[in-house]
Each structure stands twice: as structure tokens, then as C-alpha cells.
Amino acid sequence: MEHIALRTKILIVILSIVFTSLLFSIISIFLVYNINKYVEELRDRAVDEAIFAIELENQLFLQKGLVTYFLTTKDKKWLEDLDNYNNKFFELLHQIRIKSKNDLHINYVSLIERKYSEYNFLRNRIIILYKNNNLEEGKILHSEARKKFDELANLCEKYKQATKQELDLYFKNINRKAFYAKISIISSLSLCVFLSLLIAYYVFYKILVPLRSLVWNTEVYPANHRFEDEIKILSERMNTLVKKFDLARSKLEESKEQLQETKNLVLLGKLAAGIAHSIRTPLTSVKMRIFALKKSLTLEKEQEEDFEVITEEIRHIDNIVSNFLEFSRRPKPRLEPLKIEEVVSSAIKTLSYRFNLYQIKVNVDIEENLPLLNLDKEQIQECLTNILNNCCEALEEKGGNIEVIVEKGVIEPVGKVVKIEIQDNGPGIPINLLNKIFEPFFTTKDQGTGLGLSISKRIIEEHGGWLTVKSSVGVGTIFTIILPA
Domain 339-484 carries which CATH code? Predict the structure, then answer.
């Protein structure tokens, strides 16, 4: 090795690192390929078959009790449901036969199919007996059918466990190959580290040390000359440059955040000013004219009620504008002991004209003897109105029902609470939008500001409670308000 040039030594070590990395990379790729192959087999066979096994068991249990329901109600709908589940069960058996390549699983499926055919034949006899009012004989066969059903359920469970065992086997193989891949990577890294240290040794002792000796012992400089360490100076300069860069980057990020926040505040200010100018001024004029008109006319009782509703709506709009203007300042609630049922009834009465307009039926169920709550009446009524308005907008095309349930309960660690549940049977909210509906300025409506639900959530939280939402597309939406009692 002493006769080999330094450049050759370093080149040999570098090539060794490259060769080692390449070798272990090929090994790792091979192992990863095998793992991927196992994963594909797991997905295409084992997982699908496990899902089929679970679905098969579910379809079987969905048939349970339908004949009894038919006997009890004489409603043929139960037989139609039974026929649908029966067809799905046979269809699943057919799909499993196509997918499965495991002889044990195929045997299970064949046995299930045979047992199910016997059970289905017996069940059809029972249905015919029940249709002919031969109840005694039908009940005797019904007892036998239950035993066959239990046998079938046991077979389905065994088949499900067999698919689970196959899944476990796949996972064990994957873990084993992953372990080998890990060992390969660790070995490669260890060898590369060793070779890198070898390079460092050659670079330091064969290049840097002789270079420093050459610099200090050069004849170009006087013997008393104090020569500075260029590498140290360069390192210090690089460190200073990195620190300045990090500082500049952090300041730039802060500036971006401040700029975005400023833009949002400017936008909010412009929007608030526009609302104040475009809504509050004409709204005041409308309020004054309605007041004068009410004083100058002789009204019937129904007309007086209409005027009261209009006045209440104007006042409510004015409050919404005020809340919008004060959204960024977070006004604190003015709490006082109140009956929550009165606040709920007032909010529903305020929107009664919209319910009638959209042909919406509102069902209210308020538990008796509810405790007094420390509330800001205006804010809670605004919150309820916002939620009811959202329900109205969801139902405005086809009409529908809104359920309002108010009840007391206990939720740990809060303790005693009052729960307000507002449910509609509208189209529901897609899952990708459900987590965004409480965000400020988020709206799916052309004319909406996106503040209603955000303000409502903030109001409830400032009262020490919380507001949640659940929704299913095509079923409806449920808003739940929890307030501490």
C-alpha cells in the first residue's frame, strides 16, 4: 500500500463505497420488490377474501328474524328484503369461488353453500306454511331452521377466521422480508460509514496536515510572520453567512404572515364598512318608517303580530351586522339567568315566516323542568337563528322537517349540561366540507359571508360549551349544542 499513490488510494475507497452502495441497493430493491409482490397478493387475494368473509357473515345475519317479522306483521316487504339478501348471499358465494385459490377456503365455501341451500329450502317451506296459516307445523320447522342458521353462522365464523389466518401469514412473510431489507440497509450504511472514515483519514492526514505544514513552513513568509488559518476564517464566514440567511428567512416568513394578516384585516375592514354603509343606514330608515306606519294605522291582532315579527327581524339583522363588525374584537357575552326554552321558542318564532314560506315543518321537543342557564340572550338567539337558517337553506327547494330537541343531561368532566339538538332531513353536507363549515369566511353560498356558523361556534365556546355537527349525504344534518348548567 505504501507504493500506491494517494489519489489511487482515495479512488479505491470511493469506488468501494459506490460498489457497496450499489450492491446493497440491488439487494434492497430485490427485497422491496418481493415485499411489494406480497402486498399485491395480500390486496388481491387475502384482503378481498377476508372482506368477502365478513360480508358473507353480515348478509347471513341480515336475514335473521325476517320470517318472524313476516309472521308477526303479515307484511310482504319482509319477504322482499329476505329475497334480496338471499340473492346477495349467493352472489357473494359465487365471487368467493372465483377469487379464492386456497383449497381450505374453497371447501369452507362449498360446505357453506350446501348448508345454506338446505337452510333456504327449509325456510321456503316455513314461509309457505305460514302463508297457508299452518302455524303449528311452521313453528316446528322454524325451530329446526334456527338450528341450521346457527350451524351456518358457525361455519361463516370459521371461514372468517381462516381468512384472518391467511392474512396473518402474509403479514408474517412481509415482516420477515422487511427485516432482511432492514439488515441489508444497516449493513450497507455501516460499511459506507467505515469507508467514509477511511477517506476522512486519508484526506486529513495525507492532505490537510501536509498542507498546513507546507503553509507554516514556507520560505515565502518571514519566520516571525503570524499566518492566519484560512480554513478557519472560511468556516467562520460560512457560519456567519448561514446565520444571516436563517435570520433573513425567518424575518421573511414573519413578514409574509404579517402581510397576510394585514390583508385579511384590511379585507375584513372593507367588508365591515361596506356592510355598515349598505345595510345599517337603510335598515334604520326601514325601522323608523315601520314604527311610524304602525303608529298611524289601526291594525288587527294578526297584523300586529306581523309587525312584531318584522321589527324583530330588523333588530336581529342589526345585531348580526354589529357582530360582524365586532368579529375580530370578540365581544364578551353579558350573562344573566335565563330559561333556555324561551330563547329557543323565540328563535323559532322569529323564523316562522321562513318555515311557512319553504313549507318546512318544525317539531319541537323540550324537556320539562330545565335548569336556568347563565346566557347572553341575544348571542344565543343569534346562534340558534344561524343554525336554523342553515337548515332552512338546506330545505328551501323541496321543504322538509326540522327537529329541535332540548334536554338536560350529564357529561363528564363538565357535569350537568343542557343539550340542544337541531336536525334536518335535507341533502346533507359532503365529508370534504364538513370540517370546514366552522371556519371564518368559508361558505358554499353565492351570497353568504361565511361567518354565521363561525360566530355561532365562538358564541357557544364563550359560554363554556361546544357546538358540533354530524351529517350524512342524502339523510340530513344534526347540529348539537352543549351548554353547562
Answer: 3.30.565.10
